[in-house]
Design brief:
The complex is a heterodimer of chains A (about 325) and B (about 650).
Chain A lengths: L20 H4 L7 H21 L10 H21 L10 H18 L1 E3 L2 E6 L4 E2 L1 H19 L6 H21 L3 H17 L4 H25 L6 H8 L13 H12 L10 H4 L11 H33 L1
Antiparallel strand pairs in A: 1-2, 2-3
Chain B lengths: L10 H32 L1 H11 L1 E6 L6 E2 L5 E13 L8 H14 L4 H14 L6 E4 L4 H9 L7 E10 L7 H4 L2 E3 L2 H5 L11 E3 L2 H5 L1 H4 L4 E7 L5 E10 L6 E4 L3 H14 L3 E7 L5 E7 L13 H8 L10 H4 L9 H10 L9 E3 L2 E4 L2 E4 L7 E3 L1 H7 L2 H10 L5 H8 L23 H9 L9 H8 L9 H12 L3 E2 L5 E5 L5 E4 L6 E2 L4 H16 L6 H4 L7 E7 L8 E8 L6 E7 L5 H16 L1 H16 L5 H12 L4
Parallel strand pairs in B: 2-10
Antiparallel strand pairs in B: 1-8, 2-3, 3-4, 3-5, 6-7, 8-9, 10-18, 11-12, 11-23, 13-16, 14-15, 17-20, 18-19, 21-22, 22-23
Helix pairs in contact in B: 3-4, 10-22, 13-16, 14-20, 15-18
The chains are: A mainly alpha (about 325), B alpha+beta (about 650).
Chain lengths: ~325, ~650
């Protein structure tokens, strides 16, 4: 997400005019570099998806492109609207947001439907709603509110413990769904908010130690004593990146194949000759492994371009924090 | 950020934290770009190769093996296509019950029983290199292919393969020299003549198929097609295909007429034996055969132990054994050629040396007699050869007993040394010329009860005793005399031709060596040999008296240990006095030389000289009737000869 910045000083109004649409949208105050990066990524993703999924659904070659384009447009509209809102106001809603977040995730356990052995979403008439997805954003908003609100209350240690508890409660709920990926995102989000919120380095050192101990406990000690916390496949997902070629065809297969795909792109890519991603050697090419598609189809040029856009995005986002 | 100033973290602290995050981001992006660079630019080529390899599957396309043709283009060996049901053992289910069920299904397909299929697989696994598909049944019908193609899912690992199988239109013709093919075995894959072949490939295992394997074996083609991650061919995914290169054809020196006559002559007598007919100037073998013989097409199917025994046991006469080049025979009087040469060239005798033949000689109390008690009186070399006086040669042998003269001349003429023929031979093919040194050595090692004696050389002088040779070595010796001293390299291959009939290579192995023979010696011996077939007392005169072409020849009647009847030999050089071909016939237990081997030899010569004999008889008829007959036939014959190899 991005947030346009406002001028810090109101400009002198020499003439009273009806503001143009551009002015109403605050275009003049937009960070164009940031916008370029975001829109560029959207456009490139639609383009790539269009080429990569032509034959995926027989009879409707544009199935994925259409959907991606619709989401992209919806996202741009959402961006323009959100850019008009002073997000610091959400601070006042922090308790409501946090409650909604936890309750909606909790309700999934009761009303959600199960897919691939995990309950994560509600079935709504037109689409499936997954509270934890929205929760990623809501948690950051709410937690930021709590951090600012409590900036001067209590000792630093109590504060740190409070933030951790607030952040990790929904993460734990999500972990129980089970949805390890989102759980990790929520945890990292919590730590990031705390970081920018000024939690002392010493506390982070302690937290890092705790995390290391937890990892050791979960991955090594717990399975050894016969009470594994993680399911077998979850554990493999967390560890297989360490040794992708250990079992080709097994847990590391996807990584192996996607690396081959990216490498095969060489300087300028293979275009439609991109057999690795076209012939299913790399699975999930329209979602998780879309970067392999970019790497193979457009080569170093394409992949470096996308990485550059991300770098741009992060640079501008960090820059906004300093404003 | 719109925070009250007091709410904000102290700017310097925040800036530091952002700088840290920025630094981490820069580092991470640097790593990403670096990884991207290594993957795509540095390792790009190998990754691309792997990706390409990923999506392609190759299948081998078998190349047909070259044909083997007779001198005139007659096909001796070619190929027929056969459908073979093959099973890839690695694709069979691991669970024993499931495996049994699967094998039962396969067995039903080919009308076999489960134990039979298991036995076949077990047998083939022993022979065939690991990883090669195993042929369960050969020569299955086309219906089966369609059925298996339609029910692919039901038969994992089962394929119906089109294979080329050797085909022998003339059945047992020249069986032992042609040899046979077979699938390359695991040990053979790693080294030796079959390097570069793949498991399951068919290679030459014996005979000419072996020695000219590189010529005859083609290069398999490769068909490459594109597959998806499940290994299914993708539509339009045919990539490149390298067509198989058929093997080259091999044209032999074999003259089908000579070959047929020789084999018929042996078959008629129904006894084990062999014949060789060879051009004395070039070493081209016109006919070669060994009886009993067999049809090599037995090798195209798996041989049972019983079948193999029938082909190699002593009771059946060991049809696989090539008596023409691998036997260890005494030769009887045909050996007198060597004795005569040694005697003349070393000055023991001249053409006018007269020896008194009173029917026997006595050495150290042992009596050596002429056969059938003949007494020839005073006799010279030419006459001794004509009537085959043993006493003449006994005496000659006795004079050479304590030196190596007879052995030296035997070796010079090719006896007891490898012949250099272009088919593989067993260890027995070298033969043995017994000598003083050889026997004394054996005696020293206590492998025999007595040292070399005069009697040994006396025996050798007439082709008896410990002598071990074979028809081909005798043919070389006679050819060397006939051509005046050139030891030729006997060979069966004449030309290598491509599939279109173009000659790629002519095979002309030069002479192995030259022997200096005094023309006068040659003249004397040739005369004696001629008289043996034409003189009044000639041992073979009764056989050849009516034969219109003059020849030189020698009968042999050899006593062989463990055989009740004598072995019959006859060697001819024809035509006399300037011979072109040498023909050797030997028949085990065939009696006197003139009894069976000489008539058989004549049958072969009749075939070789058929054209000339026919012309002669036509001329004779012409004189009588004044008509020309058979001109048309001859034109046809000529056409057949020039139209070869097309």
């Amino acid at each position: 997400m991005m947030y346009a910045t406002r001028a810090r000083q109101a400009r002198p109004e020499l003439f009273v005019e009806r503001p143009t649409i551009g002015e109403r949208l605050g275009l003049a105050h937009m960070d164009w570099v940031l916008t370029f990066a975001a829109v560029g990524l959207i456009a490139f993703s639609v383009f790539t998806l269009g080429q990569a999924t032509l034959r995926d659904i027989p009879g409707s070659p544009n199935y994925y492109v259409e959907r991606q384009a619709i989401y992209g447009i919806a996202g741009i509209v959402g961006m323009l609207i959100l850019a008009r809102i002073d997000y610091s106001r959400f601070r006042e809603l922090r308790v409501g947001i946090y409650t909604f977040l936890c309750v909606s995730i909790g309700l999934v356990f009761v009303f959600g439907f199960a897919a691939r052995g995990s309950r994560r979403a509600f079935e709504l008439p037109f689409f499936a709603f997954q509270p934890s997805e929205l929760g990623k954003l809501l948690l950051v908003l709410a937690l930021a509110g709590f951090v600012i609100d409590g900036a001067r209350r209590g000792s630093p240690i109590r504060r740190t413990i409070r933030y951790l508890a607030l952040g990790l409660a929904p993460a734990l709920l999500v972990f129980l769904q089970p949805d390890l990926g989102t759980c990790l995102v929520l945890t990292v989000g919590t730590l990031a908010v705390m970081y920018f919120g000024g939690v002392p380095w010493t506390h982070f050192a302690v937290i890092s130690g705790g995390i290391a101990a937890l990892i050791a406990l979960v991955l090594v000690v717990a399975p050894a004593v016969g009470h594994p916390v993680l399911k077998e496949y979850q554990q493999q997902r967390l560890t297989s990146f360490l040794h992708p070629s250990a079992e080709p065809g097994g847990a590391g297969y996807q990584q192996d194949q996607s690396m081959v795909a990216i490498g095969a792109g060489q300087k300028t890519g293979r275009g439609d000759q991109a057999t690795q991603t076209r012939l299913d050697f790399v699975p999930e090419r329209s979602t998780d492994f879309i970067f392999a598609v970019i790497g193979e189809r457009y080569g170093f040029l394409g992949a470096a371009f996308v990485l550059s856009l991300y770098a741009l995005l992060i640079w501008r986002a960090l820059r906004i924090v300093t404003l | 950020m719109y925070l009250r100033p007091e709410d904000r973290a102290r700017p310097s602290r925040l800036a530091l934290r952002i700088a840290v995050v920025g630094g981490v981001a820069v580092t991470l992006f640097a790593i990403l770009f670096f990884r991207l660079w290594t993957l795509q630019i540095i390792d790009g080529a190998s990754n691309l190769a792997e990706a390409k390899n990923n999506r392609t599957r190759s299948t081998k396309v078998i190349a047909p093996r070259g044909k083997i043709l007779a001198r005139n283009g007659d096909v001796l060996v070619d190929n027929r296509t056969s459908l073979a049901l093959q099973v890839d053992p690695s694709k069979l289910p691991e669970d024993p019950a499931e495996e049994a069920a699967e094998l039962t299904k396969i067995a039903e397909l080919v009308h076999m029983k489960l134990p039979q299929v298991r036995k076949r697989i077990a047998e083939e696994e022993k022979i065939v290199a690991a990883g090669a598909p195993i042929t369960v049944r050969r020569d299955v019908g086309y219906q089966l292919i369609y059925y298996i193609e339609e029910h692919k899912g039901k038969f994992p690992g089962v394929t119906v393969e089109k294979v080329f199988v050797r085909n022998y239109p003339e059945e047992d013709r020249a069986a032992q020299v042609l040899g046979h093919t077979g699938e390359v075995s695991e040990e053979e894959l790693e080294s030796g003549p079959y390097k570069g072949t793949e498991p399951g490939e068919v290679v030459g295992k014996e005979g000419l198929e072996y020695s000219y394997d590189k010529v005859l074996r083609g290069t398999p083609g490769i068909s490459r097609y594109q597959v998806n991650a499940l290994g299914e061919p993708t539509p339009g995914g045919r990539l490149t295909s390298t067509p198989p290169t058929p093997g080259d054809n091999l044209k032999l020196t074999i003259d089908p007429a000579v070959q047929e006559a020789g084999e018929a002559a042996l078959a008629e007598r129904g006894l084990p034996g062999a014949f060789v007919s060879m051009n004395i100037h070039t070493g081209e073998i016109l006919g070669i055969g060994s009886a009993p013989t067999y049809d090599p097409s037995v090798w195209t199917k798996p041989l049972s132990t019983k079948q193999y025994e029938a082909l190699s046991s002593e009771e059946t006469g060991d049809p696989l054994f090539n008596r023409a080049i691998e036997s260890s025979y005494p030769t009887g009087s045909t050996y007198k050629l060597m004795t005569a040469l040694a005697g003349l060239e070393n000055g023991y005798i001249t053409g006018s040396t007269v020896v008194d033949d009173n029917g026997y000689i006595e050495l150290a109390g042992q009596k050596f007699e002429n056969s059938e008690g003949a007494v020839n009186g005073p006799i010279s070399l030419v006459h001794a050869l004509e009537v085959s006086s043993d006493v003449f040669f006994y005496k000659l042998g006795a004079r050479m007993w304590d030196n190596n003269d007879l052995q030296d001349w035997s070796h010079k003429m090719g006896i007891g040394v490898p012949t250099g023929i272009d088919v593989p031979t067993g260890p027995s093919a070298e033969g043995l010329v017994p000598s003083k040194q050889w026997r004394d050595q054996l005696f020293e090692e206590e492998l025999t009860e007595r040292p070399w004696s005069q009697g040994d050389d006396v025996q050798l002088a007439v082709g008896q005793g410990d002598l071990q040779t074979d028809p081909l070595q005798m043919a070389i010796a006679y050819a060397t005399l006939g051509n005046g001293g050139t030891v030729v390299t006997p060979h069966l291959a004449k030309e290598v031709m491509d599939a279109a009939g173009r000659v790629l290579k002519e095979i002309e192995p030069g002479p192995r060596r030259h022997v200096k023979i005094d023309p006068e010696s040659r003249q004397l011996i040739m005369e004696g040999l001629h008289d043996a077939t034409a003189g009044p007392g000639g041992t073979a005169t009764p056989v050849f008296a009516e034969f219109p072409i003059e020849i030189a020849g020698k009968t042999g009647t050899a006593e062989r240990l463990g055989h009740l009847n004598n072995q019959s030999w006859f060697i001819s050089l024809a035509p006399y006095p300037d011979p072109d071909i040498v023909t050797v016939v030997t028949i085990e237990e065939g009696g006197f030389g003139a009894e069976s081997a000489a008539p058989a030899n004549k049958q072969i010569l009749e075939a070789y000289f058929a054209k000339q004999l026919k012309k002669d008889s036509e001329e004779a008829t012409e004189e009588e009737t004044g008509e020309v007959i058979g001109g048309e036939e001859e034109a046809l014959l000529e056409e057949a000869e020039t139209g070869e190899g097309g």
